[in-house]
């Protein structure tokens, strides 16, 4: 499930309040403040309090403004640009906004003890007719009206509840499996520096796409549901 936080609170109100507060710092472009606020909001929403997974910003305008690149790279450039006082001000507002959003999601039954925010994605490129944007890459569904800056993925284990009754060790086995794959990735990509470009894996009834800090595309292929009357696939060219 990919909720967009704009569904829960008025982004216009939040953003206007933010700009009024951030204006105290003076001398900074609203675009810079907005990008930094997005990144810090994503950090406070993320379950591990880390910067979001991302799709790279495209085009010369993003490059010129310094908004292209990894979340960490953009964050560090903007942090140095705005200075510590403005940074702390923006971070404080982002933390307050994250709490308001998570409280609202819980109150509306979007999150619970069985369904929590699993990942946060920083999006840059809109879906367009004939061209995949970040929404379609992430969900497998085109939405030309979506212009969300952040998208949240909910992780839950509701689908395995009945199986957990049959196998008391299943929950631990699944966690160990995830840890093992993470260790493989860290060893192959981060430690040995192999130039892996794409990492494929499968799941029933979900499609997912994101890019890691090491610029590896993670692509989850749907193993169960047809999309646009064809089975989910990803072409590989040599």
Number of domains: 2
Give the overall pLDDT as a whole number. Answer: 75
Strand residues, percent: 5-15%
- Major beta sheet, specifics? 3 strands, mixed
Structural class category: alpha/beta
> Helix share of residues?
40-55%
Total of DSSP H or I helical runs spanning 4+ residues? 7
List the helices and strands in order: HHEHHEHEHHEEE
Shape annotation: globular
Give the radius of gyration: 19 Å
Distance between the amino and carboxyl termini: 33 Å
Taking strands numbered 1, 2, ... along the chain, how are they ordered across the largest sheet?
1-2-3
Low-confidence stretches: 1-25
Q: How many E strands?
A: 6
Write structural notes for this entry.
This protein is of the alpha/beta class and 238 residues long. The protein folds into two domains: 5-156, no CATH class; 160-222, no CATH class. Helices cover 44% and strands 14% of the residues. It has seven helices and six strands. The strands form two sheets. Strands 1-2-3 form a three-stranded mixed sheet, with helices on one face. Strand 5 (208-211) and strand 6 form a beta hairpin. Helix 1 packs across helix 4 (71-107) and helix 2 crosses helix 4. The radius of gyration is 19 Å and the shape is globular. It starts with 10 loop residues before the first helix and ends in a 16-residue tail after the last strand.
